[in-house]
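QA checklist item 7 of 12: single-chain prediction sanity check.
[x] sequence parsed
[x] length recorded as 830
[x] structure emitted
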Amino acid sequence: MDIHIIRPDRHRDRIDYGKLAGTEISINESGKRTQSRLAMLQNYFKIAVRSLWKHKLFSFINVVGLGLAMAFCFMQLIQVQSTFEKDSFHPFPDRTYRIITDATSKDGQTYSLASTPFPLGEKLLNEQSIIEKTVRINRTFGGNLSNGIKTLRTNGLYADASYFEVFGFKLEQGKPASEPRTAVLTHEMAERFFGTADPIGKTLTNYEMGTFTITGVLKPLDKFQTHLKSDIVVSMATLPLFKPAVRTENWVDYDTYTFVLLSKGTKREALDRALADVAAANRKTVDFKELKYHTFREQSLSEISPDYEGLLNNPFVEPLWKIGVSLLVPLIIIILAGFNYVNLTLTRSLSRAREVGVRKVAGARRGQLINQFLVETVIVALLALAIGYFGLLFMQTYIHVSWITWEVNDTRMLWAIFLGFTLFTGFLAGILPARILSSYQPVQILKGELAPTGLGKFGFRKTLTIIQFVVALVFMTATGIMNSQFEYMANDNENFNRKNILNIPLTADSDFKLLSNEMAKQAGVKRIGLTSATFNEGAGKAKLARLTDKANAAAQKEAFIYSTDAGFIENMRLKFIAGENMPATADTSVHFVVLNQKATRSLGWKNPKDIVGQTIMLNQTEVIVSGVVKDFCIMRYELPVSSLILAFDPREIKVLSLEVEAGTDPEQVTAGLAKVWKRYHPRESFVYSWYEEQLYEDYAEGGDQRVTEIMLFIVFAIAVLGLLGMVTYSTGKRIKEVGVRKVMGASVAQIMHLLSVSFVKMILIAAAIAIPLGYLLGSLFLNIFTYHAELGPRVFLVCLGSLLLIGLSTIGMQTYKAAMTNPAETLRND
């Protein structure tokens, strides 16, 4: 065995001590630079804290103003994050896909749709082994549903029974809807319809589609969001009853949403091939009519929201542009709060100028000064973050609306967004003052040549203040007008009576004559009326015609109809402008009707008195017009006036409408009525509704109003805080002038006038700009409604008075404080 000894190369392995020394010096210099930067940041921080502490009032204004604005912005950021987290709770996210369609027209243009033809789901399930389950969803269900006393607008969908297996929609009680005319309600909608009563087996009615039986109730989704939003899920077996055109061979109607659950281990590429095969087969067998062809592709659940493509037929999925628009109002609010920082910083620019001059003489560069001022702004923003978070918690307890979510799945991401937004806000608010202050030259400072930055003849700072008050007053005026309309709709108005009215829905086997007779004997019951439904979208449809036109179908006029008796009309306090109420006796009132003015005009009678006593055709029955009532809102206030018929038909009576004596104890009345109900319906829950509370719940939009109230408070608070800062600083700078004037004999009132006149002018200028804008926006809003509140001067006077009261109080307190200062103290050192 040969042993080879390898000798080291002396030249190769020789240590270069010169290079090593250079490396050591380089490392030391790098470490010193790092330490220097840290020391500089520490110095920036100390100076910033001292500056903020020295000017406590201005720091408080900046922190609170930014904090209030951040609270609202945080709420909107949560909505944005929840958009990206939609449908993250389903049990098979890696195997569930939505099928979307690319339809190409004959001119070569391609339209991308989130929906598919109806037959696609069944074809995939039957012919492709890679498909474990499919779900077909049709979103055409919608309208008003009634339980007899309460009519609610519902948004629903038709779905296969597999909907409850593929997706994470769990049942709280009951079972899935699979049979025709069966449905599952959400937890929230079940509570709105039935309260605490068991909804399983109960029915809801639509006057065009008929009756639906409730088989189950869904659990609340809590913090989770979905694009499959609905109030009610109706069985797919119900769809052909209302839409006979839905056929398994119709491949050119794109009104169905198809979801597939792949078998375990199947890759999405296999689904792509299956969809390509179906599309290829369609091109050979389907008559595409106006289209050239269509293709299909898959989309995983995580890719559905937000909508990056701008798909057609894609409800409850926000496109990117809509997310941007939703951030517009929070952006305006945060800019208004930033105005305060810019305004107050520039207001104090002359006092900060000395600091800038000293630093520049000592050798500070402009970039270092900008960094110093930005550090101050970032500290203010971080303090505002804490206030914004607590403000967010308060809004969560105060605002309760279905379209706002307060929780997200990834809280770490949310806090990263909050922190990033805070730093961005600090930079945005601080960069302009930092650049302006750092641009001052020491020579200008020493010569006293500096003056506050201006915008033409009118000061830039004053312009920012006026903008704040214009936005606040416009928002306040528009909000006041909108709230007046909501209050008009929600509370008692001139349309019909709702006070002291108790509505009781009847069951299918109820004897309304027997029940009404027994309930009329209860203490506190003044009158009982009978009706097919309460006013508020529960009307049926009928045909009206002159007696001479009964054979002419073209001359028949459509009208809404309620089956009522004379007692119900009296309870509603309808205003007769001609004739009288229908006879109270049920045996004869079947031949009498009451019309409204619109129905009278539609039949050709201009004078309502001329139609009273006339015989007309109601569908195929001859009836006599006993009276005409003034037009009133029977449905939504934004809808046009409709023709109305009130006619008694015992077969349609579904609600007892009781007028209760004023001052009667509600609990005592309902307890007595419940005993009567249980006597005849021992197995049925006693369901009732106070009409006034029901309509208030339908129209008040309490949650929406609270959102606007919060926004209004934040905008107004920011404007007032900015004004407070400006007035405080202005009076402080003129304190010696005030002392001189007092020595020369000026009164307190004269000094207050001198100090406040410029600020009062700013408020009046803002009012002159904002009131017309608020009036224009309010008028546009009210024009949406057929029946609306009067746009009188009250709203404008209240808004303007509130602005003046708050503004003048802010100005008055500070100027009075300055005017009462003892000249001996202010002039002592001069």
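[x] summary fact logged: The first strand starts at residue 96 and ends at 105.
[ ] second reviewer sign-off
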